């Protein structure tokens, strides 16, 4: 049986200035800063939540979007359970670059990695360059008919919690699928492959959330 505590690594990827750091800060700290500094390399934060009765600890890795840091990205997304691919709805260029991230992740990571496309800055709808229909159609074409596009606003706190909860629920579903498909180790650890523990579950009797 799957334990009631899970730990998973989530990496945030996307072009510079799409608001990756703002999304993480809004979700974890419930605040927004209009002058959020650019990430250098990557930053890490952990948060806990409860989904469907399971206590889940997310290790969220916020990566730099500048081109000069792109070669470092594999170091940060290696072993990730899920990747959140962020674009700016006011930037068609940032949306087009999602494609290269999907191709790279499919080439270099496990087939079990969860991919989620997110359009940020929906508070700037009057400056929109990427339509909801365009992004939704792309997501379903590339990631399957069940993919759900999220358009969010870190500034106005629109949809951010819902998006992270959705990703976490997909992580939980994946852990249960893996348990059925492969095996559960005697110590309660579910492995996505032989090399990395992508999702860990422990039968802990208590946990502060």
Automatic annotation (TrEMBL):
Molecular-function GO term, any one: GTPase activity
Highest taxon of the lineage: Eukaryota
Annotated keywords: Nucleotide-binding
InterPro entries xrefs: P-loop_NTPase, Small_GTP-bd, Small_GTPase
The keyword Nucleotide-binding is annotated on this UniProt entry: yes
Pfam families cross-referenced by the UniProt entry: Ras
Protein known as: Uncharacterized protein
């Amino acid at each position: 049986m799957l334990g009631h505590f899970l730990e998973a690594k989530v990496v945030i990827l996307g072009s510079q200035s799409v608001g990756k750091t703002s999304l993480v800060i809004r979700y974890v700290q419930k605040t927004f800063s209009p002058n959020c500094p650019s990430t250098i390399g990557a930053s890490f934060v952990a948060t806990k939540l409860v989904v469907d009765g399971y206590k889940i600890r997310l290790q969220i890795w916020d990566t730099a979007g500048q081109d000069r840091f792109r070669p470092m990205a594999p170091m940060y997304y290696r072993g990730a359970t899920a990747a959140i691919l962020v674009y700016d709805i006011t930037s068609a260029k940032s949306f087009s670059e999602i494609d290269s991230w999907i191709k790279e992740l499919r080439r270099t990571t496990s087939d079990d990695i969860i991919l989620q496309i997110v359009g940020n800055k929906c508070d700037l709808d009057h400056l929109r360059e990427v339509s909801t229909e365009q992004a939704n159609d792309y997501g379903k074409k590339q990631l399957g008919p069940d993919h759900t596009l999220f358009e969010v606003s870190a500034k106005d706190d629109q949809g951010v919690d819902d998006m992270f909860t959705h990703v976490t629920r997909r992580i939980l579903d994946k852990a249960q699928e893996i348990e059925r498909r492969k095996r559960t180790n005697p110590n309660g650890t579910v492995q996505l492959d032989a090399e990395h523990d992508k999702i860990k579950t422990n039968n802990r009797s208590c946990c502060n959330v």
